[in-house]
Amino acid sequence: MSCTPPDVIGAWLHSYEEDTETTAVYRPDDYPFPPARRGRRGLEFRADGTFVELHPGPDDRPRPAAGRWRSLGDGRIQITFPQGQGTPFELTVVSCTDGVLTIAK
User: Fold this and answer.
1) How far is it, in rounded angstroms, from Cα 86 to Cα 7?
2) What is the set of domains in the chain, with CATH numbers?
3) CA 88 from centre of chain
4) pLDDT, the chain, mean
5) What pLDDT was estimated at residue 5?
6) Long-range CB contacts for residues 14-17, cutoff 8 Å, separation at least 24
7) What is the pLDDT of residue 1?
8) Where are the beta strands (DSSP E) in 1-88?
9) Residue 49's pLDDT band (boundaries 50, 70, 90)?
10) What separation in angstroms does the CA of 72 have from each of 24, 69, 81, 93?
11) Average pLDDT of 34-53?
């Protein structure tokens, strides 16, 4: 089962410890993650259609890239970066339940 807006609204951080061969797992940004030696990628879906992708920078502080998102149906989400801050991509949401966002790799 895939989830669609407004289920994905919020800020999510990659919980790479929980990834499988076929899925990437994200948890809310206030989740008590265990200490990690690498920074976590983040995704923030806002209700107004804006999107922020966070990548760990060279000093592990997050580097934001602002964009837009829209649902394409069937759990597919299109991400674009009108200001040229990133490369457009699509995500397929596998599930979004109990504070866990699972995305197909």
Assistant:
1) 24
2) 10-104 (2.40.128)
3) 14
4) 91
5) 63
6) 14/40, 14/41, 14/42, 15/40, 16/40
7) 42
8) 10-14, 23-28, 42-45, 50-56, 62-73, 76-80
9) very high
10) 20, 10, 16, 11
11) 93
Question: In the predicted model, is pLDDT for residue 71 greater than 70?
Answer: yes
**Pairing of the two strands 42-45 and 10-14:** antiparallel
Tokens of 100: 């866990």
Q: Tell me, what's the pLDDT at 62? A: 84
Per-residue CA distances from 19 to 28, 41, 88 (Å)? 15, 13, 23
Q: Provide the pLDDT for residue 3.
A: 58
Gyration radius from the chain CA atoms: 13
Integer Cα distance of 40 and 63 in angstroms: 11
Question: Which residue in 28, 30, 7 sits closest to 91, CA to CA?
Answer: 7
Are 67 and 81 in contact by the 8 Å Cβ rule? The answer is yes
Residue pair 70/77 in contact by the 8 Å Cβ criterion: yes
